[in-house]
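Notes continue from the previous slide.

Worked example: a multi-chain complex. Inputs as given:
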Amino acid sequence: MRVLVWGENVHETRDERVRRIYPDGMHEHIAAALRGLVPAADVRTATLQQPEHGLAAEALGGADVLVWWSHIAADDVADEVAERVRREVLGGMGLVVLHSAHLSKPFRLLMGTSCNLRWREDEDRELIWTVDPGHPIARGVPSPISLDRHEMYGEVFDIPAPDELVFISNFSGGEVFRSGCCFRRGAGRIFYFSPGHETVGVYHHPSIQRVLANAVSWAAAPRVELVELRESTWSPSGWYEGART
Amino acid sequence: MRVLVWGENVHETRDERVRRIYPDGMHEHIAAALRGLVPAADVRTATLQQPEHGLAAEALGGADVLVWWSHIAADDVADEVAERVRREVLGGMGLVVLHSAHLSKPFRLLMGTSCNLRWREDEDRELIWTVDPGHPIARGVPSPISLDRHEMYGEVFDIPAPDELVFISNFSGGEVFRSGCCFRRGAGRIFYFSPGHETVGVYHHPSIQRVLANAVSWAAAPRVELVELRESTWSPSGWYEGART
Amino acid sequence: MRVLVWGENVHETRDERVRRIYPDGMHEHIAAALRGLVPAADVRTATLQQPEHGLAAEALGGADVLVWWSHIAADDVADEVAERVRREVLGGMGLVVLHSAHLSKPFRLLMGTSCNLRWREDEDRELIWTVDPGHPIARGVPSPISLDRHEMYGEVFDIPAPDELVFISNFSGGEVFRSGCCFRRGAGRIFYFSPGHETVGVYHHPSIQRVLANAVSWAAAPRVELVELRESTWSPSGWYEGART
Amino acid sequence: MRVLVWGENVHETRDERVRRIYPDGMHEHIAAALRGLVPAADVRTATLQQPEHGLAAEALGGADVLVWWSHIAADDVADEVAERVRREVLGGMGLVVLHSAHLSKPFRLLMGTSCNLRWREDEDRELIWTVDPGHPIARGVPSPISLDRHEMYGEVFDIPAPDELVFISNFSGGEVFRSGCCFRRGAGRIFYFSPGHETVGVYHHPSIQRVLANAVSWAAAPRVELVELRESTWSPSGWYEGART
């Protein structure tokens, strides 16, 4: 399994608090966690600042799953790169969308809705409950996962109804949020997972790392031929039961 | 629209607290609220203690929507009556299932799962958030509805994934719950709504009453022929565009 | 109910066959059918050739449902108009997407997928089967509707899994197609219905007209406030059961 | 992976045509095919005629997936065994339901609907189209699979909307059918697959065998604790980001 962890890599270079939590950048931190938990995976990283944001056709084509964290620079991603990501997902590449990347271009293109939500940066405690205990992404994950302090993300979250809903969060300020949502688009699988505010060390949490590892395994799938608009020319190759009995 | 409100009518006769809140029984209280909010509706009531629980074939056949509250006596409902309710729902009758009726026989028969959940009778404050603001059941309903004190119902709620998820609740004790869930089964529409513990006057709450009225309007539908197992004998009545242009 | 029927209006002006079937244009023909079947509706029309394609902010803002037929000129629709349609749908406007408008800009923006499919313009007979007999869009519609000759649209149809699947078509050439699909996006309801090739008079068919009328009624809904990204500032207005009992 | 293939084993003992096609019984034939295609699987069989139909608690508890074919003797399955199967599925056991087993007790208990459909035993040719090309059950399966002659199963198929729809069939007589349907119930995964009439050798077809092998792999999952109704007693084990950074 080949995993590509993409990071915006902006807060880490500007904000001392973030650099202290993630000295090598959030993308490198997440990549290291995945290497530990999914030993069979070949995990690489890419960032906004690289040519084509590190998402040239070959890089994307070689990935089974793309993990995406972005926030303040979401709109700096080139439209053609966002569109390339969308096409790769439709062709079967998995996509794991983290936290404020609900507003990233690829996710919004794939959802079709605004992907807006309510938020509050305060002292909320977040509890992440599993609502689908048999789901592979929930395997080995305690319910709830408790985050002592985390940015509040609250409903309404303007997304299409998820194809599978795995986690719902409770915030001590009173809100709720669909914090773990699966979508299938084309041949691709998409998982949105809301934890991950840059100024708290959520990606150090062992259970959050477990969710990421599970999500990557769930989302990985072989590519299939993209569905193209085409004139139909199939011809049935008949099969007669008499021939084989 | 013809609505039949069914009440177990047991707590009201045994528990002074409940009688004080609902002097005429929960079913009569809910029926009165619906009469006020859905003037076009013909709203009747029935209870466990009546012959066939007030759910003889004619009574059910004449209902567009059945509202169901039960708790302690859920298992006292006769199997053949529960099965009759199931068949009517499949044929198009709406069903609004309230609070502890998640364990009622008709709901469990229709869901196929255990319908179990976590619960705690304590001092929790419940906040009921709308997650689908365009849904007809959420129309005119503030988000959140705030209940100062209510029994906690928490995930995992063992139901099939709802066809439409309208409300999610936050409890001050930390839990979350899918508190407003739509299901379509056969030609029938089912709405499960969790508020309604017997010892607090939730059904006096104007916004809760608004949800009930919306739910009844949403669930009402004309009956259709039940799907029967049958040998196919259709014959196409051809239609040629030339004939009409 | 205010309905706006939008037609590309290109084939009608170029192709004698189409003009003979729809002398006033497909949009006027569909509008007239809706006026007959939904008497309470105020039905207007708009076309590609008008300023802003007849879809200025006021026109769209005043519509409860937009019906859209397009084909050869799908890409001539201005991006900002397509985006405006998308926003109105998210805010609650219904959208009925017909036939080759599976490739229209608004539908593709809302779906996020390619919306591609297989096709064949030949002598196929199409049979449109109801798979959800209780659905309001199927009310009064025979199953199957038989079209003696129609363009084949076949799977794979690259759309997100529909929130509700109403019709599936059988083609005599051997293919199948999900020909009636409901989607909910934001507060809006979208219905895709595949019949409607321009060179056969499908929109003269009484049962096809019945589907259009049902779809318009199903998709119409009041606008709700668009979900915006915003800092949360709610404060609970407590409700105490004691106050009302 | 441990697979248990359950066969009713009645037609095989009474009907010379069936015995000729499946000399060792349909269950043994299917088991042999699975052994060939899923080498890592431990595949066993059980039949109606065995004590507890071969489905004692230990046998079921030891299975990751149960494959079920039944027809004429569906109602001879003991209610307590059907209920045991239901509970095991809710706890995580996969279930693959074949052909006329749409009327089997376990499937009907899990669905909650009648599971009725239209049928015709005639000379129809069935074409099974993939509508979800990225689905693991469709991997390596040609689209369409062509069956020269097969019993017609047609819509309306009275099931809850499938959580994932993989295959739709076209019959030369004109009907359509959702022939490959995934459901998630509790922690279990259920796949219904309609091919398999006893008098034609469908389970000799290599592509049908491929679907069965894919389905078994898709449905297998570790057991999880059944969701029980219980008083909530969780206590959060706080996690503070500072502790690890």
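Summary box: Residues 206-219 of chain B form the longest helix (14 residues). Confidence is low (pLDDT under 50) at residues 241-245 of chain B.
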